[in-house]
UniProtKB/TrEMBL annotation, chains A, B:
The gene is proS. It comes from Autumnicola edwardsiae. This is Proline--tRNA ligase. InterPro entries: aa-tRNA-synt_IIb (IPR002314), aa-tRNA-synth_II (IPR006195), aa-tRNA-synth_II/BPL/LPL (IPR045864), Anticodon-bd (IPR004154), Anticodon-bd_dom_sf (IPR036621), Pro-tRNA-ligase_IIa_arc-type (IPR004499), Pro-tRNA_ligase_II_C (IPR016061), Pro-tRNA_synth_II (IPR017449). Belongs to the class-II aminoacyl-tRNA synthetase family. ProS type 3 subfamily. Catalyzes the attachment of proline to tRNA(Pro) in a two-step reaction: proline is first activated by ATP to form Pro-AMP and then transferred to the acceptor end of tRNA(Pro). Residues 27-295 form the Aminoacyl-transfer RNA synthetases class-II family profile domain.
Amino acid sequence: MGKKLTTRSEDYSKWYNELVVKADLAENSAVRGCMVIKPYGYAIWEKMQGELDRMFKETGHQNAYFPLFVPKSLFEAEEKNAEGFAKECAVVTHYRLKNNPDEPGKLMVDPEAKLDEELVVRPTSEAIIWNTYKNWVQSYRDLPILINQWANVVRWEMRTRLFLRTAEFLWQEGHTAHATKQEALDEAMQMNDIYATFAEEFMAIPVVKGSKTENERFAGAEETYCIEALMQDGKALQAGTSHFLGQNFAKAFDVKFASKEGGLEHVWATSWGVSTRLMGALIMTHSDDNGLVLPPNLAPIQVVIVPIYKSEDQLAQISEVANKLTSDLRAKGISVKYDDRDTQKPGWKFAQYELQGVPVRLAIGPKDVEKGTVELARRDLLSKEFVNQDEVVEKVSALMTEMQDSLFEKAKSFRDSHVTEVDSFDEFKKVLKEKGGFISAHWDGSPETENKIKELTKATIRCIPFNQEKEEGSCVLTGKPSSQRVLFAKAY
Amino acid sequence: MGKKLTTRSEDYSKWYNELVVKADLAENSAVRGCMVIKPYGYAIWEKMQGELDRMFKETGHQNAYFPLFVPKSLFEAEEKNAEGFAKECAVVTHYRLKNNPDEPGKLMVDPEAKLDEELVVRPTSEAIIWNTYKNWVQSYRDLPILINQWANVVRWEMRTRLFLRTAEFLWQEGHTAHATKQEALDEAMQMNDIYATFAEEFMAIPVVKGSKTENERFAGAEETYCIEALMQDGKALQAGTSHFLGQNFAKAFDVKFASKEGGLEHVWATSWGVSTRLMGALIMTHSDDNGLVLPPNLAPIQVVIVPIYKSEDQLAQISEVANKLTSDLRAKGISVKYDDRDTQKPGWKFAQYELQGVPVRLAIGPKDVEKGTVELARRDLLSKEFVNQDEVVEKVSALMTEMQDSLFEKAKSFRDSHVTEVDSFDEFKKVLKEKGGFISAHWDGSPETENKIKELTKATIRCIPFNQEKEEGSCVLTGKPSSQRVLFAKAY
């Protein structure tokens, strides 16, 4: 266990890094920028995958798998996309190692096994997928194509942090093909909505839905929709994006279809993705100085039962109660772990499960056996109470919903109190410095102004929110006219 | 749909390749040796994953994720493992592309972005994982570690075939660490047994369990257990392997633990895996000249309902029956697709689902509505019968089990009739040439003899079966004494 976590007020960034490692979520590996996702962290990711996968399938999408490698000639076909990713991509140039004659026992790249064409390890799969779709689409009858892929991708980022920015990460990427522009726009919007629903209902993270500005758009997209969340330190985090790609990839890869009307048209595209970065958002939305706090809907272990005993005899009696509770709770669909290991003391277990964010802890001692009670501790409030054994199942079932809702409400009220409307650049800087959060301000619509503001404050436009009334105003930096406010923030 | 499949007797290999593509399972991609797994093929793989994952978790394993890349210095640490995989590995040498000044719009590797140390794209993950376990293990209390990973791996094979041998493939790889040799041996055996159970109960493929000879062992293993299946063309296919790695990786990566007794000892290891290669085994065990045949336990669509109609009115009446059947069957946990698309004719649909191996097809026409019947077609026997609508659910439920069993029995009787005991090398060659299958023969136990037989016949020792009585005899090639028969075959 080691010593306590650095507190959030001491050093938020250090708190985060320590928490990820100490709660057994992930750790750095021997490969620069690549992480090891440990079993407990991966179990949370599996819960996320399960829910998202269900939502994708319910909306008609199917999973498939495309190659890890993108030949350079395909990679460069869509110019903007290539430009956006070329600067940070891992490139395979050889297909063999051989013994190094100068250093026995060591290997070296075999210069005779140089590939004719370099292969880029996919940073995203539009190129390889649209090169495939080309052969799948002849007529409008072949459309839409609604495919998702669960995969690893690599972006050679220079500064990395566990989950938030890693050279390799896991994600899902949807790639759809449509006969009309409107259908593609609707699809991109639908998937952004699914991400928002998932974030709010499962991760208990309130998000703002909106569009990205041209500067912040995905390389190769005509429109990027997104969901933006706010972390406890006042920085924003882009939690998911959904892109309307227009006909850019269809043109780059010559994907045309015979329309109902008899014409030959380029196909319309979308792509959309969320990644293991969501793990970072989950941690930074709910956790506290004692460790991880997990919403019940994503907790791999929802309830842990810890026996407190001095003799084998006591343990046997406690186990009887614990085993009954375990099976009754499981019958309600609640995941339970009964930790009767004798290698660790109860205090150690309490601290460990607190650190790992298990929503409910039940402790049972000899007195509880006598009295027919258990001690129930709630992770989010760090509160404790005694509950009659015959009321535990009902109480815990209700708590699953209550804690899920309460975490969301708490995060929402924090977020809502950290959206500040400002009307001058001085105020902008003051709020950003003293309070952080989202700053709702007028902007003249030009990339230059956005860049200038970024240069001066490090804040970027997180999104142009969808659900926001038009309002005449003037740009917070240039004073030029503006018809609506946008959300600025410093971001992860 | 295109024209009919090549038949198996005409050209088995061509039949296989055509089937994989026409049944929409997979296709070749723009990357040499890498495949695209199409949605229908991927759905079968997902069913396999689901069952295996459940079996792994039920035996105490957890999933995790380790980096895609292995730094060269780690890759070469376990000498035999490195030697086994160095000849066919993809190597990342650079982390950036830049604009090619000589060819506008084209990119080139940026020579200034050369990695200090080359990264091997994992062909298997022992090296990166044992380098990680090193930090996880101090004491016997940290053991066992029971971890599985679902991942993509790359082996730069020169001759590739869809599913059977591809440069990139999907698999799971279990990597466990133990305090004692016996515990590791038991784990390796347990996982081989799980693979056998999965193959027989879900894939309906009978397998022989056994050990590999030294020649055929995994690079770096002290013992390799395996399950061997027999394909319809008389060639064997290694369907899963489980390795006892001894202390080889613990020594290479210096992984020691403080034992209960107070000593400091090297950890014992296993690894085990199955891959998308299983898709090839599934196809080649059950399918026929009309296309894929799927065991119900792995069929993404177990029942398809096709309406046969001339008017909208008829369709409405048929749909009423079909929708009721669909929901009744689904209530029994059976997956059903009602294909009422008007873009394709019934005949086209019949052929398509036959090609794709959907176990049961129900066809409903106006006469069936009148008479209260449906036409039920069984994919494995290509048989048809009329069934009363109120008996369909019961009938189909029973068929799911019946077809599963019947496919297994059919494959088993084929396999059993293709295990031939031979006692001379002439007989060996004759049987291999005229009949194929497994040849059960005495072998003197030397790698040289095994190599010589391979050279002369292309047959290798598939395994030394576990469940086989000892029998004194003499080697089929050298005449030297042998204490048990082993199984030879030509293999995929």
